[in-house]
Automatic annotation (TrEMBL):
Highest taxon above the source species: Bacteria
GO molecular function ontology, one term from the record: ferredoxin hydrogenase activity
Main location: other
SUPFAM superfamilies found in the cross-reference section: HydA/Nqo6-like
Location of the protein in the cell: Cell envelope
Assembly: Heterodimer of a large and a small subunit.
GO terms classed as biological process: anaerobic respiration
Entry protein name: Hydrogenase small subunit
Stretches assigned to the Cytochrome-c3 hydrogenase C-terminal domain: 225-302
Family the entry assigns: Belongs to the [NiFe]/[NiFeSe] hydrogenase small subunit family.
Length: 309
């Protein structure tokens, strides 16, 4: 029998997990039980993709504990994901509409990619009906978002516009929470999102039938609690005034474009690709991709950032 954990203990595990003891490894019994219940009839997941690169889907596919095979085939009730599913065209859209109606008010809507609003959403079509009417991402979000129990914006593009919403932004890309106002929207920042942050949030929502505590940008506080600078392994260089002149040099990377002093995330703890590495450990400056200011106000990517002054 799997031991039940309290909400307090769940949050403690989420905020304390490191790359050495991964979040999903620590929570695996809870994840398996909770998502298995979802597969047996609890709220399913519908995943829409807008203006983006599918990088957040790729990031999720890299989850290892539990494996993505177990998540997709044995555990999670993923009803629609146009990159992963076999059907296409009107058949796929009909199934999407059928699932949204069947589970109205119950399903979690996951959105990946920004929402194009210019020209009535005409810059991003994601589906087609049997009478060959094109469905824009903007229309789909409004329609299916109104039927969802809650909405999760997966990655910086869906959360805040991200790279597709960079200036001059001719397609008018915005984040999901600027469109959906009558449902809870949880923003999972970073480009791409970390699979631990996404699955941890989803498990919390399914287990407690509630959304986790959010910060001022609707990000779960348990995954976005502090700025990266606080836990950066190069922070000691900053305190001693030792600054790198080029990416990869010894020293703090603040003068070569690092935005770790404004980026709220835990990349330094969980790292990426199953705890293999992360930007600063690879010698590259943090670009604050977790923030709503990314990428416009985080420019220049390389060069002294204003927060360093």
């Amino acid at each position: 029998m799997v031991r039940r954990i309290s909400r307090r203990e769940f949050l403690r595990i989420c905020t304390g997990a490191t790359a050495g003891i991964g979040l999903l490894t620590a929570l695996e019994p809870t994840i398996v039980n909770t998502l298995a219940q979802a597969a047996e009839g609890k709220p399913p997941v519908i995943w829409l993709q807008g203006s983006g690169c599918s990088g957040c889907s790729v990031s999720l596919l890299n989850t290892v504990s539990p494996s993505i095979e177990k998540v997709l085939l044995d555990i999670i009730s993923l009803k629609y994901h146009n990159t992963l599913m076999a059907s296409t065209g009107a058949k796929a859209y009909n199934f999407l509409a059928e699932m949204a109606d069947k589970y109205a008010g119950q399903f979690v809507l996951v959105v990946e990619g920004g929402i194009s609003t210019a020209a009535g959403g005409a810059y991003c079509y994601i589906a087609e009906t049997e009478d060959e009417r094109e469905i824009s991402m903007l229309e789909a979000l409004k329609h299916f978002g109104s039927k969802a129990a809650a909405v999760v914006a997966a990655g910086s593009c869906a959360s805040f516009g991200g790279i597709p919403g960079a200036a001059p932004n001719p397609t008018g890309v915005v984040g999901v929470w600027e469109i959906i106002k009558d449902r809870p929207v949880v923003n999972i920042g970073c480009c791409p999102m970390h699979p631990d942050d996404f699955l941890g949030t989803l498990v919390y929502m399914l287990k407690y039938d509630d959304i986790p505590e959010l910060d001022e940008y609707n990000r779960p506080k348990m995954f976005f609690p502090d700025i990266i600078h606080v836990g950066c392994p190069r922070c000691g260089y900053f305190a001693r005034g030792i600054f790198a002149k080029n990416p990869g040099d010894e020293g703090c990377l603040a003068f070569v474009g690092c935005k770790g002093m404004v980026a709220r995330a835990r990349c330094h703890q969980r790292q990426w690709n199953n705890g293999t590495n992360w930007c600063i450990a690879a010698g590259a400056p943090c670009q604050a991709c977790s923030e709503p200011t990314f990428p416009d106000e985080c420019s220049p990517l390389y060069g002294r950032y204003r927060v360093s002054d």
